[in-house]
Amino acid sequence: MTTATAPCSSPPPAPPSPPPAGDTTPPSTPGAIAIVSRTNSSITVSWGAATDNVGVTGFQVYLSGNQVVTTSSLTYAYTGSSCGRFYLLAVRALDAAGNVSDQRFVFTTIC
């Protein structure tokens, strides 16, 4: 009985190179936060635009260290707050690759 042997073959091709690195540059820090209006239970703030080498897609808004929303707007109304309490309000810019800027923040009371 004879057995066939496979001819010598070359090694398998090398895996493809990984794609070039994506966007790793974070957006600039948003401009200063300004108080637009206050009531006994809410505060509306605005901030300056941020820039990015590709484009800013939104802003992450924080209340006392907790993210409350991601928005494309340059304003946000914090509601359900208590008069006389101090709050840390902050915002970060976000780009499509998930890069985030440093936080811009303000420490304030609601009324």
Quick recap:
This protein has 111 residues and is mainly β. It is built from no helices and seven strands. The radius of gyration is 25 Å and the shape is elongated.
CATH class descriptor of the domain at 33-109: Mainly Beta
Full CATH superfamily name of the domain at 33-109: Immunoglobulins
Q: What is the strand arrangement across the widest sheet?
A: 4-3-6-7
Q: Roughly how many Å is the radius of gyration?
A: 25 Å
* Secondary-structure element string: EEEEEEE
Q: Secondary structure elements and their pairing?
A:
Blueprint: E1 33-38, E2 42-47, E3 56-63, E4 66-71, E5 75-79, E6 86-95, E7 104-109
Antiparallel strand pairs: 1-2, 2-5, 3-4, 3-6, 6-7
